[in-house]
User: Fold this.
Amino acid sequence: MFIRTMVCALGVFFLAGCAGPGAHLPVQVPTEEQAAITIYRPGGFVNGAGYPYVYVDDAKVGRLMNAGHLFFGVSPGSHKLTLQNIWWWDGKQELTFDAQSGQRRYYRVLSRFNSAMVIRPMLMVSKTVLIEEVPEAEALPELAKTTRSD
Assistant:
């Protein structure tokens, strides 16, 4: 009975993260002088409960939830996009990009299991995260299936 209660409690804990927290937050609309950046994460099971922190030039922009997106503006020039979450993967993932005034850029974040190995009494899992720039025509249909993150 105790084990069943613990499993149910853990299930509720992990599923509670699926409720989108960002619905009440104002959207940062980029100015005409800025580039509009959208980073999104298609919905998926792999690492679904992990919400990585997103930083641009070491300034926190928000957290990227499963099937979520963040929209913000950056000044023209070179920028560093960083995703970090110790529960999602070890270390951080970084991408450098050059932005131009009035430009729209779309970045997709994918997470995959590489392998799993059982070493008693633990399960060791190898994961990778991919941050890739995608064309607007490819990004927009995927973005329609996401909600705004915080």
About this structure: The chain has one domain: 2-148. Residues 84 and 106 are 19 Å apart (CA to CA). The chain has two helices and nine strands.
